[in-house]
């Protein structure tokens, strides 16, 4: 990706992130909703710390761009995208805890358990997780009830024991017994890939896509999910903490096996190129409507954050 194209894409990503940020601020308002008794100020502050004021919002971006392929209602897609970001940020808050990765920095700021305390961080993560499903279930997410139900079900599976949470469990186990290559691929497909796949599929679900197009978007999500993790592994090996806004070199220090560590940097970069090509081929039937998603695939592979 040349510099001009990169800047154009980053501008689109930033515009999308601003829209998601505005929606998240609205959803994290201090006023309780119908059925809520109160929103404790300290807990709400910790939730806001974990969600607002940082991040590229890549998963929401992929969801909204996938929905655009099918001319889906933009406001509904934005609300589902915000729900996905709440769930993603819950996972980051919990991943950063001393019992997990024990990180002090996230997006260049103190992690939630450092800015507040461990108990508040756990509750903030729990609250963001449940809020994600609340947002999608809400009638203000103006989609047919069956569509909202499917989005909730798919997100539960992407986030739960068969997806992201299960991947985190495998990641913890990998510190004791390093997995083989097949195990690494499964771990990464669950911990990182599941929510990226969901983002792409959810856009198709919102847009009422047929089975073939949904499967195509799922495969696209799988390809860029693996590319995202490979790029992440390379950054952990080569980037500075200042550039990433978080600690680096953690995988090697913890003795964790990664595909990049197993095969080397040159192999990983060849794999990234192949995954980008695969992703672009999957989008061919959508023509120019998928131009931004093609850029997203390249950006994920070449990212520096």
From TrEMBL:
UniProt cofactor(s): Mg(2+)
Top-rank taxon: Bacteria
EC supergroup of this enzyme: transferase
Pfam families the record matches: polyprenyl_synt (PF00348)
EC number: 2.5.1.-
SUPFAM superfamilies found in the cross-reference section: Terpenoid synthases (SSF48576)
Keyword Amino-acid biosynthesis found: no
InterPro entries xref list: Isoprenoid_synthase_dom_sf (IPR008949), Polyprenyl_synt (IPR000092), Polyprenyl_synt_CS (IPR033749), Prenyl_diphosphate_synthase (IPR053378)
Sample GO molecular function, one term: transferase activity
Keywords: Isoprene biosynthesis, Magnesium, Metal-binding, Transferase
Family: Belongs to the FPP/GGPP synthase family.
Protein name per its UniProtKB record: Polyprenyl synthetase family protein
Organism this protein belongs to: Chelativorans intermedius
Lineage of the organism: Bacteria, Pseudomonadati, Pseudomonadota, Alphaproteobacteria, Hyphomicrobiales
């Amino acid at each position: 990706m040349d510099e001009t194209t990169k800047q154009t894409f980053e501008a689109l990503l930033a515009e999308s992130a601003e829209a998601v940020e505005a929606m998240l601020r609205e959803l994290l308002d201090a006023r309780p909703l119908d059925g809520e008794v109160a929103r404790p100020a300290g807990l709400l502050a910790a939730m806001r710390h974990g969600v607002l004021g940082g991040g590229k919002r890549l998963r929401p971006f992929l969801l909204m761009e996938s929905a655009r392929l099918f001319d889906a209602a933009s406001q509904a897609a934005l609300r589902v995208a915000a729900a996905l970001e709440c769930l993603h940020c819950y996972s980051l808050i919990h991943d950063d805890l001393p019992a997990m990765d024990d990180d002090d920095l996230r997006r260049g700021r103190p992690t939630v358990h450092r800015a507040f305390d461990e108990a508040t961080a756990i509750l903030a993560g729990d609250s963001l997780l449940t809020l994600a499903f609340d947002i999608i279930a809400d009638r203000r997410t103006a989609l047919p009830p069956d569509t909202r139900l499917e989005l909730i079900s798919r997100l539960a599976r992407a986030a739960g024991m068969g997806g992201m949470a299960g991947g985190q469990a495998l990641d913890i186990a990998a510190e004791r017994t390093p997995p083989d290559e097949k195990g690494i691929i499964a771990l990464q497909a669950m911990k990182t890939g599941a929510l990226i796949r969901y983002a792409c599929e959810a856009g198709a679900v919102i847009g009422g896509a047929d089975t073939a197009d949904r499967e195509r978007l799922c495969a696209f999500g799988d390809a860029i999910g693996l590319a995202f993790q490979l790029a992440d592994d390379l950054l952990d090996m080569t980037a500075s903490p200042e550039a990433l806004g978080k600690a680096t070199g953690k995988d090697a220090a913890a003795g964790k096996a990664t595909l990049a560590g197993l095969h080397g940097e040159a192999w990983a970069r060849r794999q990234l190129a192949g995954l980008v090509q695969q992703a672009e081929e999957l989008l061919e039937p959508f023509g120019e409507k998928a131009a931004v998603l093609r850029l997203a695939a390249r950006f994920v592979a070449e990212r520096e954050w």
